[in-house]
Amino acid sequence: MGRGSYTSADWSKLKKSSKITEGSTASQIFAARKMEERFNPLYINVREARDSEDHPNSTPIIIGLDTTGSMGYLSEEIAKNGLHETMMKIYATNPVEDPQMMFAAIGDVVDQAPLQVTQFESDIRIAEQLLALWLEGAGGDSPEDFELLWYFAANHIITDAFEKRSQKGYLFTIGDADCHMKLSKESIKRIFGDTAQELTSAQLVKMAEKKFELFHIHIQSASDGIPTGFSQLLPGKVLTIPRTSVKYIPELIISTMELMNGKDMEEVISQWSELSQPIVRNSVKNLVVKKGKKGFFF
User: Fold this and answer.
1) What is the rounded CA–CA span in Å between residue 60 and residue 62?
2) 35 three-state secondary structure
3) Separation between Cα atoms, residue 8 and residue 31, nearest integer Å
4) pLDDT single digits (tens) 60-115
5) Helix, strand, or coil here: 252?
6) What whole-number distance in Å separates Cα of residue 35 and Cα of residue 39?
7) Is 263 helix (H, G, I), strand (E, B) or coil?
8) H or E segment to which residue 68 belongs
């Protein structure tokens, strides 16, 4: 996994073959009507982000999308524009070395597809697998089960960045709801096939943070603030963005990685368009950056 590089030409071909246009809806873009076994964590022992000849210093990046209920618009934006913009801007700005990206679709523990995870890739296979995910769109009311991805990251991912260089990857969850504060042993067994005791979300965050820097991008309505659960679990790592500005999520993700790697705030902000600059600045203003050796944040 993780060979090759992402190109605009490959994206254009995939977009054309998948008949994705600006008018395409989420249900048209994501044609799957059930979860494929290759994305089902019940059948996945580990996902690996390994170094390769093409990418000798791989950096794992995980983006987890809330795909419940009303969140179809987010998946639609990511599929139409967000993924392509993120990858092209990552290669243009080099916030990290040798990026390898994995997507996750996060539902509810009660869903048929509570969690789906792609492989870590560096080329057009990132997009191919994203488009093959099932947008079940079920789920109950807030909060949502972001803790499922933290569990998977802690227990079922191996990275050369961590194993060889003691460097952390980056894990971003994105949604408009709060998180649950625990994961039951019954859910762990049913979803992952693991035998474990109930874990609190605080425990899961601590476990996942051994290998990843965790962030949450909260999509705000006009009046809401940072969700209580996330403010407790990820202090200084919750980024907010208005729903009307989700097209700037690529800039926000890249800016966060650059700031965590010690880049100056004004230098980070100034690289973006005049329209996106105030959005990104407001989103990262409360980000806590603990400086240290690259890849170590204590």
Assistant:
1) 7
2) coil
3) 23
4) 999 999 988 767 788 888 888 888 899 999 988 999 999 999 999 999 999 999 99
5) helix
6) 7
7) coil
8) none
